[in-house]
Design brief:
Blueprint: E1 13-17, E2 22-23, E3 37-38, H1 42-46, E4 54-61, H2 65-70, E5 80-87, H3 89-107, H4 112-119, H5 123-144, E6 150-156, H6 163-173, E7 179-185, H7 193-196, H8 202-209, E8 214-217, H9 220-234, E9 237-240, E10 245-249, E11 256-261, H10 268-274, H11 285-294, E12 300-307, H12 314-328, E13 334-341, H13 348-362, E14 370-373, H14 379-388, E15 391-394, H15 403-410, E16 418-422, E17 437-439, H16 444-456, H17 459-476, H18 479-499
Parallel strand pairs: 1-4, 1-6, 4-5, 6-7, 7-8, 8-11, 12-13, 12-15, 13-14, 15-16, 16-17
Antiparallel strand pairs: 2-3, 9-10, 10-11
Helix pairs in contact: 3-5, 5-6, 12-13, 12-16
């Protein structure tokens, strides 16, 4: 991805998110020639299927913008230009606080008592949330002004709910001679009405979402929750267009919003190809030795890949694994590697979880059977790990979709492993019960029994299940498909108004 100017080019697509695919590490070597690292997020993975010419707008702390531009890697994808939006650090951090504590927990239906407790303290954070959305609206308007005639704006996730109406206000004050449509995709669950109402200022958030021309969700459940909120709080009506899309109308003669279900995906071939490589030079040597030893027949290696987040069920996973070793007398044979990437370390609740996870693993009865790796890994190294792992434990308490499950499937060799998948993931709504081993992540006994079923499964059944899983992923969860289906209605609307 390049950082070239877009002023002289007509870019039909503007992608907008809270982050760009590269970031400046929280602590980095000032002497290093490569200060940017690849962002670790499902959004970045999903958007790897974006192949058309486009501009990607994302936030960067104002004091870091010049450094960011200076160290952008050149030549990775010449079709996508990156545009960092400078945001004052104080406002940036308060915006993150609102997103990571209030919105994240409520949308996942977790820690609601904690949210209620701190809600009164968060008015200042809400004001910063609005200010950041305003900065994005101004940046989008600036980029729209450089387009020749048409443009599509595609905004991602809960950090930017308010942008469309703020953008419309700016354009009303100073109109542009350009036809554009603006779409939105929510990468996390949309909660039931009574949970959504726990958000302070939820009415303003709903108003913001209804400013989009199209809204995408991973699953029908999330879509239906959203439609019920709109019906209750805004008096909206809606009618089905297909099984996966509805037309929502604001009032009897009001504007119409397309609400559709399009699950995100991965670039399947990239993961499949990288799984055939070896570990990179940056992969820790001691971990490589441990993994290679634990994945040799007749030993069995289980793997988990998660961010350190309350939604991921990390502690339950460790407890269920210890129960497996004790109950089945398997400490000589079964091993578990948990990749747990720290995130939001400035938030006390996340730091507490990280500390508790380290203590849980540190006090694990069978120390030689478990490894906890607290750093992110490259996509290549993850792909090789997926290939070597006999079982993938994808067991979050709730997840919008979960791309790790799809990545694991794409990386499986001729003698594949087994996917254990939480029933609470969006992916579980699509993946057939006869293919993955589905589990209730809050039931430790069921978790243990499912692990034992996975490691006991014969080769023939593993191959049959994985063959069907790989077919499902290639049919339903391809990033290019998600991009195409999400943008198609926006393009059609722009073409329609161009003919008027």
């Amino acid at each position: 991805m390049s950082g070239k100017s877009s002023e002289s080019k007509d870019i039909p697509l503007i992608v907008v998110s809270s982050r760009l695919p590269y970031q400046i590490p929280a602590s980095h070597d000032t002497q290093s020639n490569k200060k940017l690292t690849k962002s670790v997020s499902g959004l970045v993975t999903a958007l790897e299927g974006l192949s058309e010419e486009s501009l990607w707008i994302g936030g960067v702390i104002k004091d870091d913008v010049e450094e960011f531009k200076e160290h952008l890697p050149a030549g990775e994808n010449q079709k996508i230009e990156l545009h960092p939006v400078p945001i004052e650090s104080t406002i940036y951090n308060k915006h993150k606080k609102w997103c990571n504590v209030i919105l994240w927990f409520v949308f996942h239906g977790m820690m609601l008592s904690y949210v209620k407790k701190i809600a009164d303290e968060c008015h200042d954070y809400w004001e910063s949330y609005k200010k950041v959305n305003q900065v994005y609206a101004e940046s989008i308007k600036e980029q729209l002004s450089k387009q020749v005639k048409n443009a599509i704006v595609w905004i991602h996730d809960y950090h930017l709910f308010l942008v469309p109406n703020l953008l419309k206000q700016l354009l009303a004050e100073k109109p542009l001679k350009i036809r554009y449509r603006i779409g939105f995709f929510l990468h996390i669950p949309f909660p039931p009405v009574e949970t959504f109402e726990q958000i302070p200022n939820y009415q303003e958030i709903l108003d913001g979402m209804l400013g989009y021309d199209s809204i995408g969700f991973h699953t029908r459940k999330y879509r239906d929750n959203f439609l019920k909120c709109c019906e209750k709080h805004k008096g909206c009506t809606f009618k089905p267009l297909t099984d996966d899309s509805y037309e929502l109308q604001l009032g009897r003669e009001g504007r119409k919003v397309l609400v559709q279900v399009v699950p995100a995906g991965i670039v399947y071939k990239t993961f499949s190809d990288q799984s055939k490589e070896e570990f990179s030079e940056k992969f820790p040597e001691d971990l490589k030795t441990w993994v290679n030893e634990c994945s040799k027949n007749p030993k069995t290696l289980l793997i988990g890949v998660d961010r350190i987040d309350h939604t991921k069920g990390l502690l339950r996973k460790v407890d269920a694994f210890q129960e497996l070793l004790e109950k089945r007398k398997l400490s000589h044979k079964v091993f578990f590697l948990q990749i747990a990437v720290p995130c939001r370390d400035t938030e006390p609740k996340y730091e507490e979880l990280k500390k508790e996870l380290k203590n849980r693993v540190g006090n694990f009865k069978y120390q030689s059977n478990i490894r906890l790796h607290l750093e992110s890994l490259s996509q290549q190294d993850l792909s090789v790990l997926y290939k070597k792992a006999d079982v993938a434990l994808v067991t979050p308490l709730i997840d919008g979709l979960n791309l790790v499950a799809l990545e694991y499937i794409a990386c499986q060799p001729a003698e594949p492993g087994v996917l254990i998948l939480s029933k609470k993931t969006g992916a579980a709504e699509y993946i057939h019960d006869d293919d993955a081993l589905k589990v209730d992540p809050e039931n430790e006994q069921e978790m243990e029994e499912t692990m034992y079923q996975a490691i006991s499964m014969n080769s023939k059944e593993r191959r049959e299940r994985m063959k069907r899983l790989q077919h499902q992923v290639q049919e339903k969860f391809i990033s290019e498909r998600w991009v195409q289906l999400s943008l198609k209605p926006l393009r059609e609307r722009v073409e329609h108004i161009a003919k008027l």
